[in-house]
């Protein structure tokens, strides 16, 4: 923006024409920026270069606009009033855009259509300026035609926004997309390979592969149930809107699991895995089972409310790759969840990879231990992800279970009585890193875990 402002010293002549055309160019470049970036993402060497060029181009254009507008209006009012009004509306517009874009537009329209909509607004501003101030210009009709052409080009892109999104995603995912949608909270994409493998991606992050998800979910569910009190259990599942964790819980008869409450933020997620025939078949129709209550709510707020206490809590959130998710791994959240857990109840938290993200894994473990829970870390190998970690915890003393629940289903494909004890054995390369005098605790006001997670996965070029 500073470069653009400086460049205006060499702009003379028909300032209004310059302003309108810069406004139209910013609208075109900014409007199509998300599409261009998505299409280039994953192509060697092109993504970062294109990103810098687009950001630089938009910044230069925006930097040119204000000085030109001040010069155009010079003489029509006192300089102090002119500067005050121009900057007031500029800052007000920037505030509105910065709030509307992430909070209203992207959750409802998606990134591509939101960018195109803002580009249309830019083009309309250019059209409005020329209609108000430029009727005496010799190029008036030409400028109006240019502005209308920009609106049409951006409008067509907006109309085909979902198709453009799908086109861009074809370069990001290795298999055919069978379902995609943007919700208020995330981008949901389901793919299937020619060999029949189904994958779920949330905002670009792989959540499961149908080839091996049973390994992840058997370790997530049957280990805490092996350590749970021996009575009819009330089970809480946080996250896991795909219903796969609930499927594993429901393998136990009603004498073992009395009821299940699933709390997932996104109603589109639970609806998809309830209504989509093939996806609902993956979870054995778990979300419509009479023992299951589905609640679409923010788990951070929900666990702080009043309600029943649970014998088992299964926490199946996405990895802490952002502060919005990182709050669900904080000391504050675990304190809230502990109050919803029976005194002799157990909880388990999926805790990323203790091999790839070792410090992140132990940060989750230590944060849980910091509120007084007895903690037992364990891990399992899931081919789609590698070695994956979990933390089993309880307000009461806890020992590693040596046998599955006496009524554990015989249909398990991975976990057995013989396999179970080995999950709690950590080789040296997954134990807490040597030389760590301070153990970082993930607190709500700093979220050290999010930074650790980003550093560790970025170091190996991961997601």
Summarize the structure.
The protein has 15 helices and eleven strands.
Record keyword descriptors for this entry:
11 strands; 463 residues; 15 helices; seven-stranded mixed β-sheet; four-stranded antiparallel β-sheet
Could you describe the 3D structure shown?
The two termini are 31 Å apart. The chain is elongated. The mean pLDDT is 90. The chain has a seven-stranded mixed sheet, sandwiched between helices. A four-stranded antiparallel sheet has the order 1-2-3-4. Helix 2 packs antiparallel against helix 3 and helix 14 runs antiparallel to helix 15 (448-459). The chain contains 15 helices and eleven strands. It has 463 residues and is α/β, with parallel strands linked by helices. Strand 3 and strand 4 (205-209) form a beta hairpin. It folds into three domains: 2-167, no CATH class; 173-207, no CATH class; 211-459, Vaccinia Virus protein VP39 (Rossmann fold).
The number of helical runs is 15
The number of distinct structural domains comes to: 3
Give the strand tally.
11
Large-scale geometry: elongated
Please describe the biggest sheet, giving its number of strands, its sense, and whether it closes into a barrel: 7 strands, mixed
CATH architecture of the largest domain: 3-Layer(aba) Sandwich
Radius of gyration: 27 Å
Distance separating the two termini: 31 Å
| Unreliable parts | none
- State the CATH class of the largest domain: Alpha Beta
Amount of beta strand? 15-25%
Helix percentage: 40-55%
The CATH homologous superfamily of the largest domain is named: Vaccinia Virus protein VP39
At the third CATH level, what is the topology name of the largest domain?
Rossmann fold
Q: Give the SSE string.
A: HHHHHHEEEEHEHEHHEHEHHEHEEH
Q: Would you tell me the structural class of the helices and strands?
A: alpha/beta
Mean pLDDT over the full residue set: 90
| Strand arrangement across the biggest beta sheet | 7-6-5-8-9-11-10
């Amino acid at each position: 923006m500073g470069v653009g402002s400086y460049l205006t010293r060499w702009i003379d002549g028909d300032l209004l024409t310059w302003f309108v055309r810069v406004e139209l160019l910013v609208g075109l470049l900014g409007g199509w920026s998300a599409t261009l970036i998505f299409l280039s993402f994953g192509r060697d060497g092109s993504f970062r270069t294109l990103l810098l060029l687009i950001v630089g181009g938009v910044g230069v254009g925006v930097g040119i606009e204000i000085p030109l507008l001040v010069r155009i209006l010079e003489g029509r009012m006192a300089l102090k009033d002119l500067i005050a009004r121009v900057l007031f509306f500029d800052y007000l517009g920037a505030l509105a855009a910065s709030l509307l874009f992430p909070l209203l537009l992207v959750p409802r329209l998606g990134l591509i259509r939101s960018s195109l909509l803002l580009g249309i607004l830019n083009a309309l501003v250019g059209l409005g300026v020329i209609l108000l101030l430029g009727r005496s210009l010799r190029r008036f009709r030409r400028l109006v035609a240019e502005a209308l052409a920009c609106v049409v080009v951006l409008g067509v892109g907006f109309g085909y926004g979902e198709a453009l999104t799908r086109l861009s995603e074809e370069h990001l995912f290795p298999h055919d997309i069978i379902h995609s949608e943007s919700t208020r909270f995330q981008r949901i994409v389901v793919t299937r390979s020619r060999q029949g493998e189904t994958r779920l991606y949330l905002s670009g992050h792989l959540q499961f592969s149908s080839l091996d998800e049973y390994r992840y979910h058997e370790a997530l569910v049957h280990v805490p149930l092996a350590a749970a009190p021996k009575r009819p259990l009330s089970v809480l599942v946080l996250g896991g809107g795909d219903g796969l964790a609930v499927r594993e819980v429901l393998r136990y008869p009603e004498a073992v699991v009395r009821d299940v409450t699933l709390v997932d933020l996104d109603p589109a997620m639970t609806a998809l895995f309830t209504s989509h025939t093939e996806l609902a078949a993956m979870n054995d129709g778990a979300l419509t089972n009479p023992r299951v209550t589905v609640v679409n709510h923010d788990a951070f707020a929900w666990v702080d409310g009043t309600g029943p206490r649970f014998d088992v809590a299964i926490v199946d959130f996405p990895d802490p790759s952002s502060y919005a998710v990182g709050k669900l791994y904080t000391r504050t959240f675990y304190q809230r969840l502990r109050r919803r857990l029976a005194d002799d109840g157990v909880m388990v938290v999926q805790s990323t990879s203790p091999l790839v993200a070792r410090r992140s894994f132990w940060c989750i473990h230590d944060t849980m231990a910091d509120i007084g829970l007895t903690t037992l870390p364990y891990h399992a190998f899931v081919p789609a992800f590698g070695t994956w970690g979990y933390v089993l915890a309880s307000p009461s003393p806890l020992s590693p279970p040596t046998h599955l629940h006496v009524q554990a289903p015989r249909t398990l494909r991975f976990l057995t009585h013989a396999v179970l004890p080995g999950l709690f054995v950590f080789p040296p390369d997954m134990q807490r890193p040597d030389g760590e005098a301070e153990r970082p605790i993930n607190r709500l006001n700093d979220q050290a875990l999010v930074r650790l997670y980003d550093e560790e996965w970025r170091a190996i070029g991961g997601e």
